[in-house]
Amino acid sequence: MPTLDTRVPAVLLRIDRNPFHHGTLGAARSLGRAGVEVHVVADSEGSPVRRSRFVCATHPPPPPGSSTADIAAVLRRVAARISRPAVLVPMDDASALAVSRLNEELASGFLLPRQPVALTERVADKAELAAVCESAGVPHPVTLVPRSAAQASAAAARLGLPVVAKWSRPWLIPAGTGLRSTVVVRSEREARALYLRTEEAGSRLLLQAFLPPGHDRDWFFHGYVDRSGVTHGGGPGRKHRAWPRGAGLTVVGRWTPNPRLQSLVERLTEALGYRGIFDLDFRRDAEDGRYHLLDFNPRPGAQFRLFADGSGLDVVRALHLDLTHRPLPAPAPLPGRTFVVENYAPFGALRPRPAGRELAWHALDDRAPGRALWGLWARHVASRLTQRAGRPLPGPAAGARAVASPRVSGPTAGPPRQTPGATAGPRGAATGAGSPVGADSTVVRPRGGPVPRADARRRHVTARPAALPAGSVTRLPADDEKASSC
Description:
By secondary structure, this protein is an alpha/beta fold. The chain is built from 13 helices and 17 strands. It has helices spanning 22-33, 68-82, 93-101, 103-106, 119-124, 126-136, 149-159, 188-195, 198-201, 259-272, 315-323, 367-389, 395-404, and strands at residues 10-13, 38-41, 57-59, 86-90, 110-111, 143-145, 163-167, 182-185, 205-209, 218-225, 231-243, 249-255, 276-284, 291-297, 338-340, 357-359, 442-444. The strands form 3 sheets. Strands 14-13-10-11-12-15-16 form a 7-stranded mixed sheet, sandwiched between helices. The chain has a 5-stranded parallel sheet with strand order 3-2-1-4-5, with helices on both faces. Strands 8-7-9-6-17 form a 5-stranded antiparallel sheet, sandwiched between helices. α6 (126-136) packs across α10 (259-272), α7 runs antiparallel to α8 and α8 (188-195) crosses α13 (395-404). The longest helix is centred in the C-terminal third of the chain and has 23 residues, at 367-389.
């Protein structure tokens, strides 16, 4: 195991209100086992995470709807209580965005990677991601950005149904709206109804060419890029099971060597000058074999512990080592290792894995979170079922929920809200119907002009950069949305 500087504590920051975020527990265990004092700034009430013996202290998070200034005030209070510099680890997109904006202001109390200005905002914004991919030569599904309900309907027809609908800045979606950050749209009517909720969602609606799921198509890549631009502490993984099925949160993942994907990721991070922890979601196009980048998450993915290697290194330990100027060990990959989220895949947790396996909640050296999980999870499932049974379906909201419904499969209650990733559903035939997208719409196009309908699924695209607003970053979607990788 690499020797961490145990004089330097770590602060895990999570703004979302998901009590079942196993990535936070994984980070607390990883650093705590190495002797680091771990503080958690998150809503830990009713969460198994607070039961971990590796959590030194918990601190109240910023309240919902907090501004960047409010988040800074909370972190300054935590820094004053700790009274010495600490490594700060954002655990969700809202936290990562806030910390990137506050980098200079937080420098006196926290250790942070030196990231290019505004890069975190660029890669987290779904509309910006297409431009990032184009600049680095990384495939990305064709994306259209309608400016009216009529254009949303036409864009869905042009791309060929089904299409993927995403809100460009999902962290701005207010809680309790029933909106999901990513859904599969199966009709022009559904696309139109979803667009009508743009103001409620707080960011632009994107419609994206659909790449169907299938065996060996969903991949993710985790890593940490150090101050010299070298990637440590991660690798490529294949998603064997997800919730919802064929999409979303990885519930069974396997460390699987993939030199082609690794080369693609290294080219992307080098082109961007990215520094810090990242979690990327890919889907392989079965027709041409290319890996399309679906999400760039500028923080640890919930399943990052899959990539704990033979020396004990993972992305959060790599971050701590690098920021405290400790040497990082040579890679010691453990291909075939698996990671299982047992509340979504209980049978997967029972199967023996000769190459090694880690469970998200249960650990022999930290039993309390695993014991606490099942009672809390049962109450969560019962609460979600009660809410769904009594939920009305008025107006545009009904259309949005109809869009989401094809994704529901497997267990009867969805996971708490985390971070969106790959999409799901069967391949739909291109319709070729509907009027063309209006000339005044924002269209994320490949080079060379408009996207012919027949080619819309096959080409990666560019987008015009847009600055993030400086306002609130803490409003979150409904709690049945996907984790990162999820």
